[in-house]
Design a protein that fits this description.
The complex is a heterodimer of chains A (303) and B (377).
Chain A: E1 12-14, H1 22-27, E2 32-35, H2 40-45, E3 49-52, E4 59-61, E5 65-71, E6 76-82, H3 85-91, E7 95-99, H4 105-114, E8 118-122, H5 128-141, E9 152-155, H6 160-171, E10 176-179, E11 189-191, H7 201-212, E12 219-222, E13 227-233, E14 237-244, E15 250-258, E16 263-268, E17 277-282, E18 285-293, E19 296-302
Parallel strand pairs in A: 1-2, 1-8, 2-3, 4-7, 7-8, 9-10, 9-11
Antiparallel strand pairs in A: 5-6, 12-15, 13-14, 14-19, 15-18, 16-19, 17-18
Helix pairs in contact in A: 3-6, 4-5, 6-7
Chain B: E1 4-9, E2 30-32, E3 50-55, H1 69-84, H2 89-94, E4 103-106, H3 119-131, E5 139-145, H4 146-150, E6 163-168, E7 177-184, E8 194-198, H5 199-203, E9 207-210, E10 213-217, E11 221-223, H6 225-231, E12 241-242, E13 245-246, H7 248-257, H8 261-264, E14 265-276, E15 289-290, E16 294-298, H9 301-318, H10 353-359, E17 371-376
Parallel strand pairs in B: 3-17, 4-5, 4-9, 5-6, 9-14, 10-14
Antiparallel strand pairs in B: 1-17, 2-7, 3-16, 7-8, 10-11, 12-13, 14-15, 14-16
Helix pairs in contact in B: 1-3, 6-7, 7-10
The chains are: A alpha/beta (303), B alpha/beta (377).
């Protein structure tokens, strides 16, 4: 995949295992990191681009992931996804911090990258190598700052209720842009009046989907309910970001992108020579299969 | 053995169903397939409305569940000849299959290992395919879930070279399904609105033999030919049930009409050596298992399934269980002991899916128009 020009910011490491672990960090290929203020000098002496970590500068995020719960009505397990994408859209910028327990650093990195935000990740000692591999991967695919694409505008009044709705919209891969007032570039703008009480935010988000219609959606995912997507692009190309919030690989994911693209490439974390399968473009949409996704994959489509 | 074979138009009082019962509007289905119907047409196939029904008391020992292979062989031979009218069993099979065919045998393993497509029945099908020149390498036993098939050990019964294939080694994976052949429908607002056909069905098989069991089904009322070929060949079908409601009424038949499933399913051999009269499609214990000791053979899945309704409901009546036609919400009690209590329903059952399938052109439902050719061994 070609490296593109102005790069999306890569997540940064916050490492508090002490300068004695410098060799391990160097071996992991990391040269720039955040450390406790008291250790900054020592890390710099060791040749690292070390910055003192100041928690006050960052917004701390919940740990991303999936929780499963039984759905008695349909006797299936329904996954609940803890994802932060809607928070990034609400804030519209800013710097973020993840305190990632073991096994979560790579997911946190992928989430931050896909959403184009600056993030620092406190990485568990066990995850250093994996985190470094993710950084290497993200660096390799580049990432010009193409604008995020959306189906509708969403007027955010800052309330907890609205936040919950935004979370559920993102959970359904309904792509929206937070706007201050109805944006005429969108056929649909969604606003929840300040005095409205939504008794069932899930039903509300379902209604938004229904009003939009599946045919008009910019992006749809088939084959998994634990993968969330982001879409960036312009008139001639798009990048699809897929983030797998579970701790298991997803085998076989079908993606539908509105618009007719003649070719596409796939970069999947943890896989060399990954390629899209069953690529087809017809009836105003392009579809393809991602054979396997670990934590994160990016597809670049061109007209 | 006593041998009689005769034509019989069944004089069974049809089950009472409130035909005038108002239904909610049916879901909107979008079928996407690039395959064209075959000539001759698929289901109901070359023998519409005809069912060859063979019963043999010695087919299976009800105490040990040991299957008598010789009896199974005779049942299938007599059933096929009865269906086609040929004197030679090989000629019966040759009406459906040619040596160049790649044949998928649709197993039913949802009740495995308690009640599933009997390995000896499957082996006999494979053997018969061999007599008309279909090599083992051209035969595929297929199902959806690996963990269910693994419990049946079909490999011990069929020749080397026969493929045993499942769509989902990991449940939920769509990797082995054809992305370009599917039914799209939104039942309850689920995100994934597609059910795709298994890849070998569309990309490899030229013919399919459907081998369901005789079972009741908590959502569909009964599960026979139609449900086995429909829900068993497509992905993402469990989403059709939610709360007391099941969309099996229209979804089963709709899936069965999708080309190439419809055209390639040329023969149904309903394996009724064992049956399940409650708690189906599962069969975790012998509590609700029974032994019809019969096979029903035909090209018409609707006609066979129409007879299956009576097999199951008659048994339920004897056991003082509520009818598969019961739609009273008083009896729908999810999570309250359905697995052990045949007077409870988990969903509103939909045995009407069979009549609906006939309305889609998949076969003959009118009991007075079904020709049963009965053989007693």
């Amino acid at each position: 995949m070609l490296a593109l020009l102005a790069a999306v910011a890569l997540p940064a490491l916050y490492w508090d295992q002490g300068p004695a672990t410098a060799a391990a960090v160097k071996q992991a290929g990391i040269e720039r990191l955040y450390v406790p203020a008291s250790e900054m000098a020592a890390w710099r002496d060791a040749g690292f681009d070390a910055q003192a970590f100041d928690a006050a500068r960052f917004v701390k995020l919940p740990v991303p992931g999936v929780r499963y719960q039984m759905d008695v009505a349909s006797a299936t397990t329904v996954p609940w996804i803890d994802a932060n994408g809607w928070r990034f859209q609400r804030k519209g910028g800013g710097s973020y911090f993840y305190d990632a327990p073991a096994g979560k650093a790579m997911l946190a990195a992928a989430e931050a990258y896909a959403n184009g935000v600056e993030a620092v990740i406190h990485v568990d000692a066990k995850d250093l190598a994996g985190f470094a591999r993710m950084l290497t991967f993200l660096r390799s695919i580049g990432g010009e700052t193409l604008p995020a694409l959306a189906n509708f505008g969403f007027i955010d009044n800052g309330s907890a209720q609205t936040g919950e709705v935004m979370n559920l919209l993102a959970r359904r891969n309904l792509l929206f842009e937070v706007v201050r007032k109805p944006d005429p570039k969108y056929e649909m703008n969604v606003e929840i009046p300040a005095d409205a009480k939504i008794t069932n935010p899930s039903d509300f988000s379902a209604r938004v989907r229904q009003d939009l219609t599946d045919e008009k959606r910019l992006l749809r995912i088939f084959g998994s309910d634990v993968v969330l997507a982001r879409l960036n692009g312009d008139n001639t190309r798009v990048r699809v970001h897929l983030i797998n919030y579970s701790d298991r690989k997803v085998e076989g994911l079908r993606v539908r992108v509105r618009g007719v693209y003649s070719r596409g490439t796939l970069a999947a974390f943890g896989q060399e020579k990954a390629a899209l399968e069953d690529f087809s473009a017809a009836d105003g949409a392009t579809e393809f299969t991602v054979p396997s996704i670990d934590v994160y994959a990016a597809m670049d489509l061109r007209k | 053995m006593r041998r009689r074979a005769f034509l019989q138009a069944a004089a069974v009082t049809p089950a009472v169903f409130a035909a005038t019962e108002a239904r909610e509007p049916l879901p909107k289905y979008r079928i996407v397939s690039r395959y064209q119907p075959s000539t001759p047409p698929g289901m109901p196939g070359i023998f519409p409305g005809i069912v060859a029904r063979v019963h043999a008391e010695s087919a299976i020992d009800v105490n040990t569940e040991k299957v008598d292979v010789a009896t199974v062989r005779e049942m299938m031979a007599r059933g096929m000849r009865s269906l086609t009218g040929d004197a030679d069993t090989r000629d019966s099979w040759a009406r459906f299959f040619v040596p160049q065919d790649v044949v998928g045998i649709k197993l039913n393993c949802s009740g495995a290992p308690g009640t599933a497509s009997t390995p000896e029945v499957i082996a006999e099908i494979v053997r018969n395919l061999g007599t008309v020149g279909v090599k083992p390498e051209q035969i595929w036993l297929y199902e959806r879930f690996q963990n269910q098939v693994d419990t049946m050990h079909y490999d011990r019964y069929v020749p080397a070279g026969v493929h045993i294939w499942t769509a989902e080694h990991d449940r939920g994976s769509i990797q082995s399904y054809d992305p370009k052949t599917y039914v799209e429908v939104n039942f309850f607002g689920e995100e994934d609105t597609r059910s795709n056909v298994s890849r070998p069905v569309s990309e490899q098989f030229t013919k399919i033999i459907n081998v369901p069991n005789m079972k009741d089904h908590g959502a569909a009322g009964v599960t026979g030919c139609l449900k086995n070929i429909a829900y068993g060949s497509f992905s993402n079908v469990a989403r059709s049930h939610s709360g007391p409601k099941s969309n099996t009424y229209s979804f089963i038949g709709t899936l069965a009409t999708v080309e190439p499933v419809r055209s390639r399913t040329v023969l149904n051999i309903m394996d009724g050596l064992r049956g399940v009269w409650h708690g189906g499609p599962f069969s975790p214990s012998r509590k609700f298992r029974f032994y019809p000791k019969q096979m029903m053979i035909g090209s018409d899945p609707v006609a066979i399934d129409r007879l299956l309704i009576d097999v199951i409901d008659d048994k339920r009546k004897v056991e003082h269980a509520i009818s598969v036609w019961d739609r009273s919400m008083d009896n729908v009690k999810a999570g309250q002991g359905y697995d052990d209590n045949p007077s409870i329903n988990r969903f509103i059952r939909e045995p009407g899916h069979i009549e609906y399938a006939s309305q889609l052109g998949l076969g003959v439902y009118d009991i007075n128009k079904i020709q049963i050719r009965k053989t007693e061994l």
